Amino acid sequence: MLVFGGLIAQALIKRPSRAEPAVDEVAFPEPHQDIVAGWRGPAELEAKGFQLRLTPLHGDAERQAFDAHALGAKLGLPAGAPFRLQVQFGDDFEQSSAFEEVRELLSKDAGLVTITGEEAAHAEALLAVATSHVPSLDALFHIPSSLGAAPKQLVLWGELPEEASDLQLSLGATSLSLTSARYNGQALPKHVAMLQNSGN
Length: 200
Prior knowledge:
Elements: H1 2-14, E1 35-40, H2 43-46, E2 50-56, H3 61-75, E3 81-89, H4 91-94, H5 99-106, E4 114-117, E5 122-125, H6 126-129, H7 137-140, E6 152-159, E7 167-171, E8 174-184
């Protein structure tokens, strides 16, 4: 009994002296963020609550490349990639003096939307540039007739410059400036297509 009691006492004495793992030596993984180059609308309008954002269709580069290949082959599209134009504004903007002018611009036919730059970089509404008539396209992407009522998303197709540069969003004879911006790709909307029963 004395020997057994001595062993227990010895174990209790040595227990606090065991080295505990140092927390500061553990390498914590950095949060994964895909930074996506895009464009945003005029700063003066954005300050009033009008948000205009142009980005690749997907924040993930592999999904972007896959959709570029799949859509290009299916629709007979020229070299390019899909992009997403997002339009959103709130009550504060509707009460501002700039609202009527912008609403009139965005209420035009969404098929007329073009994106241009100094180097002739451009993108057009997907339906306007497709050479193959695919009845299911309207069922796959929600194609708005105009961008006048927010929020709206319009799928565009084209080649935009990789380097950050200023662009113009044109609707007829009127245009809005787009300046370069960077976005967290994981924060971009994930659901870009919706399937509906189109009767086909």
